[in-house]
Amino acid sequence: MTTQTAAVIGLGSMGYGVASSLLRAGHTVHGFDINEASVARFQGDGGAQGIMADIAAGLDVVATVVINAAQTEEVLFGEAGIVPHLSPGTVVVSCATVAPDFARDMEARCREAGLLYLDAPISGGPERSARGELSVLASGHPDAFSKARPCLDAMASQVYELGDEAGPGSAMKAINQLLVGVNLAAMAEAMTFGMTQGVDPAKFAEIIPQCAGTSWVLENRVPHVVDGDYSPKSAVDIWPKDLGIVLDVAHGAKFSAPLTAAALQQWVAAQGQGLGREDDAALIKVYARNAGLSLPGQD
Length: 299
Fold this sequence. Notes:
The chain contains 13 helices and eight strands. The longest helix is centred in the middle third of the chain and has 29 residues, at 168-196. It is globular and about 60 Å long. 52% of the residues lie in helices and 12% in strands. α8 (168-196) crosses α12. The termini are far apart. Strands 1, 2, 3, 4, 5, 6, 7 and 8 form an eight-stranded mixed beta sheet that branches. The protein has helices spanning 13-24, 36-44, 52-55, 69-77, 100-112, 125-131, 142-155, 168-196, 201-207, 216-227, 238-252, 258-272, 284-291; strands spanning 5-9, 28-32, 61-64, 91-94, 116-119, 122-123, 134-140, 156-161. By secondary structure, it is an alpha/beta fold.
């Protein structure tokens, strides 16, 4: 297998898994994050040391696993942006959920700098990230896919090639986020509705996964509620951003997305109740509070 030298920028719950998967596959991996403890932890796991200014020219791949478009642009083209320090032909693998137009802009600006760019948002959650089993929803020039292939294969079990220019990858991620964000709201609504009818959350968790109303989202998040564990695997704060992107794209397409709009209001309410940094299963607390219900683990 071809080994490469890579940098992963953003060592949060997803980025740490990406970096660890690349390392496990035998690549030389530099990890960067504003959280110095995360960087030290990754270096303790075997990550390479060095500051970006010193190692950038020798990188084959840079994966940006940050929160949003603003952070992506700052990492690449901000005051301390890395693009001027990268060697021509380096491929930037951009993993954040962003609007398709933004991805196209980043690709054009990277091309002007002599770099390759993959519009490559990721899906699967922290556990799959840690196992190197993400789904990568990617689009970009064939040369970018070819250059990044060893790293893509290390971080993902599925790499979907959706086109030869940026945009389609982010469009597919927006579709996925629409479904997940609405599904999470539906799960929270259904579970609390059941509680008003005397259905214990544990019984809901036992029976609904065996019925037609189940979904991956429901099966994955309901145990968090039953356990009263809202430590963030995927935080509430993600969803106002991502569903906001969906609605912005829909507006540009003159497409009505009423279910997305309704779900977004619940996510904004969750932020307003101070739940932003909790696991996204904590959306159920909005419904429970409105209905005067006590959830598992609450006094």
